[in-house]
Amino acid sequence: MLSLNSHPSGRHFLQIPGPTNVPDRVLRAIDQPTIDHRGPEFGALGRAVLEGAKHVFQTQAPVVIFPSSGTGAWEAALVNTLSPGDRVLMVETGHFASLWKKLAGRLGLDVDYIEGDWRHPVDAAVIGARLAEDTQHRIKAVCVVHNETSTGVTSNIAAVRAAIDRAAHPALLMVDTISSLGSIDYRHDEWGVDVTVAGSQKGLMLPPGLAFNAVSARALAAADTAKLPRSYWDWREMLTANAKGYFPYTPSTNLLYGLHEALAMLQAEGLPRVFARHERHARATRLAVAGWGLELLSLDASAHSPALTAVLLPEGHSADALRKVILDRFDMSLGQGLGKLTDRIFRIGHLGHFNDLTLCGTLAGVEMGLAAAGVPHRTGGLQAAMEFLARTPEGAAA
Amino acid sequence: MLSLNSHPSGRHFLQIPGPTNVPDRVLRAIDQPTIDHRGPEFGALGRAVLEGAKHVFQTQAPVVIFPSSGTGAWEAALVNTLSPGDRVLMVETGHFASLWKKLAGRLGLDVDYIEGDWRHPVDAAVIGARLAEDTQHRIKAVCVVHNETSTGVTSNIAAVRAAIDRAAHPALLMVDTISSLGSIDYRHDEWGVDVTVAGSQKGLMLPPGLAFNAVSARALAAADTAKLPRSYWDWREMLTANAKGYFPYTPSTNLLYGLHEALAMLQAEGLPRVFARHERHARATRLAVAGWGLELLSLDASAHSPALTAVLLPEGHSADALRKVILDRFDMSLGQGLGKLTDRIFRIGHLGHFNDLTLCGTLAGVEMGLAAAGVPHRTGGLQAAMEFLARTPEGAAA
Amino acid sequence: MLSLNSHPSGRHFLQIPGPTNVPDRVLRAIDQPTIDHRGPEFGALGRAVLEGAKHVFQTQAPVVIFPSSGTGAWEAALVNTLSPGDRVLMVETGHFASLWKKLAGRLGLDVDYIEGDWRHPVDAAVIGARLAEDTQHRIKAVCVVHNETSTGVTSNIAAVRAAIDRAAHPALLMVDTISSLGSIDYRHDEWGVDVTVAGSQKGLMLPPGLAFNAVSARALAAADTAKLPRSYWDWREMLTANAKGYFPYTPSTNLLYGLHEALAMLQAEGLPRVFARHERHARATRLAVAGWGLELLSLDASAHSPALTAVLLPEGHSADALRKVILDRFDMSLGQGLGKLTDRIFRIGHLGHFNDLTLCGTLAGVEMGLAAAGVPHRTGGLQAAMEFLARTPEGAAA
Amino acid sequence: MLSLNSHPSGRHFLQIPGPTNVPDRVLRAIDQPTIDHRGPEFGALGRAVLEGAKHVFQTQAPVVIFPSSGTGAWEAALVNTLSPGDRVLMVETGHFASLWKKLAGRLGLDVDYIEGDWRHPVDAAVIGARLAEDTQHRIKAVCVVHNETSTGVTSNIAAVRAAIDRAAHPALLMVDTISSLGSIDYRHDEWGVDVTVAGSQKGLMLPPGLAFNAVSARALAAADTAKLPRSYWDWREMLTANAKGYFPYTPSTNLLYGLHEALAMLQAEGLPRVFARHERHARATRLAVAGWGLELLSLDASAHSPALTAVLLPEGHSADALRKVILDRFDMSLGQGLGKLTDRIFRIGHLGHFNDLTLCGTLAGVEMGLAAAGVPHRTGGLQAAMEFLARTPEGAAA
């Protein structure tokens, strides 16, 4: 078997903002014999996960599950609802928003792109203004990223919904929740989202390989007239087969075992408690960053992500060199800067299957890495985080 | 954890023609912690599986690995090489050929479909004739299924290649090897195939969730001019990232662990021995069918599949009722009849991680099931298979 | 990782009469992180398995669990209840009875040994006669093997109990159920057994490494006066710690996880159904042996074991040569002849996690092996077994 | 499956001084199908682990492996070499030394017990003096604990050897290395140890369930005349069977798979590096304890254990209350005070499969726990440990 860790001893700290640490329970669930995807046992599994997934999206609408990465769910959202040349309004929150935009362009869509500085959330007022100007309703969809994984900035989806409503604009609302679902409060139904895009490898605590679309009735209606060619991603055959717990092509059976287990774990913990746990760990992390005297990438205090924290390095210091020291010396993987942030930031993932002491180990690795790499900083960051964690038990008001 | 088997004791016999029985070694490999898909350990894994996969396709050309089902690899083959309205020549070998045709139609391709009776392989002469008629080279691709999983009929790809060559036609050759790769001799390079389509859950002995395209230089060149919209399936970003062992979006890390292990197992056994093992088990199975006095679906003796055997029920008897008796009484899953063969046939998978005694248990289940379900037959089918297996050791000339 | 199977493909058939095939559910349960054996989670686990184990022994008495092989449980039974020089009455049912006798001798006990021919069960009348002669009650214990794993002969424990009672003799009754517990009806309380000896690796479907003593009140009282030196095996500290779910020294935590799962599986199937399943498979096996024209080792039809079947080879043929052919050609392990039966018999295990098709594969392996090894036999053994299995569903009266 | 952790999220910190955190590689190795313990694959496994184990004991002598807890290996050491009434010299280093003494007494040995305060290592001079007084050589064995798990004090075995040699006394030297083997430099041959006692669940990184005796030629000779009754623990049949890789009774097959993997991991890291890693983590831990202003139980700086650290609570504070807060709030198990140290100390295990960040998480849990439980202390303990770890890379001179 391929040796997966160059460190001789101890458990790797996987603190990128996804894929996250997969719980042993989930890995063991995946490690069961594959079954007949057309047999009765599979049907029961299929019905259970299709129904259970709705809970995490806080929806009554159908949730479609693809054997694909999250990128596939981006594509699925667009090809099911739009036609070549359709205009979509997208917002540059960071690297992943820019990738989604690039994908839309490749599919032949006409992207109206609201530029951003990668340090702020979506500005709902700007969206509202664009929609108000669009009196002919050429914009068919508004696409935003709930939690921008490349920057650690979370946008207010309810505000986006309100802006669309105020403009009385018929555009569909599509939201990428790849790094927020199961970590940050997200309400598909309440916020009137038409297509929610998600993946398995973040808050859902699974390995990568499953992607999701939660689909509103309006989105489903749009699928009947949308003209972008599609087959693999088509919702309609999927939903027909899903009705009995099956899939139109071979699903990723073993990852569905894992999904079943992960949904049970989230249900047992309870979503409010899950969200509070992420908030608490994010706050502790930001206290550590402040303690080190380093700068958060996120500039809007109301938009700091509960799932990950991006940290800017002092001018003239290489984030990638720091990450390499931390990986080599302390066996921890941190997220790199992507796109225009390459080498400028590192990202600490504190989402998914996680707890206080793993967070402390993580912050210790950063603090020792800063010292080992010669990055100017103050000590005491972890100390500040610990004081917060010790005096603020889980479940207490943060 | 969801209980996956309604039978209280013993191991389920998964004898559908895929997904196949996943070896414990592969399941345990998958059951390892997910790692950073951008870190150095991942790069080593990625390079190893991308290189190792070539061996199974018998190619020096690049092999692209998608996180998707095999259906995705069908779509990828088409969208990377073709433009809207392009004509493709397809051959109706059975249900899966018809699904691929349907998919092509949805993508806006113009399918020239050579009809078939689902009991014979591809007739290379007919392909040759169509191409010869196509003097303006409007046909851009010839798409055939190597081993039709719905019928147990294997087609001669070398003959198709020869027919194309004789016609001196520039059409690309695309071959679906979903249920042949790793089970039946298949030679991407020698047979001049441009795109080979494959999946993880058959001869590769993995759970479903990975799909493959082996891509010739001509196919890659076609990708530069092909105009079907594509992003997720695009080979070009994939190959750029693959050069260093990485992927342009999050790959299905844990299934890649399994792929690494499965490739090692195939390499250790040796492809010639793997192919001979499948041939031998298929022959034993046909001896059993003959012993029972039942009819093979496959009518051309030179095209009987080494990977699965489809058996017709006597008129007036329900194959699905038989399969239900066998599942309920003997805890074995057999393949159902698909499309127009629904309820008329059952399919015995004898591919992947398999051996003589599991085959005997499988054939015993069929023979006892025929008795229990009241299907007219002779006893002695398994006996005939056993006599063949006993006097023909693995490795002896079959 | 050490490669554990020289065969390149397919699942090994482990058809020795133990260790038996461990269900995937049990292996996965064992594959969980080890926990603090003094913490609250462990206490809950300990209480659950200590209580659950009683059900399988059909007792209300305490069941002691040792981290050891079954041999340790033999030793524990004796050292807890007896003093140096004590006389014990033992019965030569086969190799394992002779090993237990040897062990008793090493501990300084005086063994009164009723000889046997290894082809018959315990004769309760002979035991009764010996006890009747022992008017001074020098015999302190009667030790018998319920199911002699070396011969496939099962003895009637209720009859032994009745013989002791008729003799009005105070000797303790100790019974080895290593290869019967969880496979053959066994009633610690109803049959008035004082110490039941068992192991994990047969009907309990676990890997080897746990051993058991079910202990009656009389046996426990004997422990207070018994003078054989003991510490590791001492019941008293064990029972004190067990009261709260803990153990006096570090228990085999991960095997206890497996025990928890295995007990749940046995409970779900239901003991009566488990026993009937074993009876049915044993009967099918004997029909196969008769079909081959071979001789059962067991000569008393009322004592044929439901758990395994020992088969004599025709004079002049080597059972070990046959087993080697079967292992090399068909990847199946069968039990060897032990002690004076070396090379004369082979033993087919049909106990534990098992079902009809695995039995058929097993019998196919024997039948093909007989042919391949040139052992004179008739074909049709498996055919006879299959006819029985097909017409006698599980749950029907056998 | 029983839920093993009351905490809803994240990985439990198992920081008792054993059982230690079992590496995933080892758990997965154990999670393989059980094989025939009399077949050829098993023989290869048996030979590999019996040979490989010698390396960890730094011996050429045979190593016997029992399916038992470490307590069994204590008993095995004594019953194989001694006769009833034999005198043994034992040293009260702590709770485990006192348990071994109790065990010896139960076996009928005459223990000459050198008392101790549980805060110092073995005093070799006192042993030497006792032996010098024993001119009639009534003392048959000297039994010491290398690393006293209950106190975190390590004794100098070379010094004990030298004292015996100086006294020219023929007593056997027996050493308990249960919590040192594979963590602290230990040399069975060089130090002239006759019987080394060990277990699987500490530095060997396995679950509990295997125990070891490394046996010198003198010890083996003693076994021929020793008169304590024994059977399960008898070395002689064991060594006879071991010669070909087998065992006289069913071994704990699946734990042996794990042993094979664990030995490969230790060999790959290299024993000197393993020992240095433990020393470094112990030093960091002591810096943290000093930083908190708490008192080490160990009073002799040259005897501080590299494997665990025992910390005294300020008078009037309950260690068990602290441990409960830490378990409930931070999901970490720490070792409790045993025997007369109950509720007075807690023990931090930093042995086995371990690394810097897990140590930091561990120390963070202690520091936050001290705060949460209201135990008087200074902050900054972890900070001191981190500064040491950051400036002292693994492999640098500590």
UniProtKB/TrEMBL annotation, chains A, B, C, D:
Gene name linked to the record: sgaA
E.C. number: 2.6.1.45
Similarity-based family: Belongs to the class-V pyridoxal-phosphate-dependent aminotransferase family.
SUPFAM superfamilies in UniProt: PLP-dependent transferases
Pfam family, one: Aminotran_5
The protein's name in its UniProt record: Serine--glyoxylate aminotransferase
Binding site for substrate: 347
UniProtKB keywords: Aminotransferase, Pyridoxal phosphate, Transferase
Aminotransferase class V domain ranges (all copies): 14-320
Modified residues annotated as N6-(pyridoxal phosphate)lysine in this record: 202
Gene Ontology biological process terms from the UniProt entry: glycine biosynthetic process, by transamination of glyoxylate
Gene Ontology molecular-function annotations: alanine-glyoxylate transaminase activity; L-serine-glyoxylate transaminase activity; L-serine-pyruvate transaminase activity
Cofactor: pyridoxal 5'-phosphate
InterPro entries in UniProt: Aminotrans_V_dom, PyrdxlP-dep_Trfase, PyrdxlP-dep_Trfase_major, PyrdxlP-dep_Trfase_small, SP_NH2Trfase/AEP_transaminase
Gene3D superfamilies for this protein: Aspartate Aminotransferase, domain 1 (3.90.1150.10), Type I PLP-dependent aspartate aminotransferase-like (Major domain) (3.40.640.10)
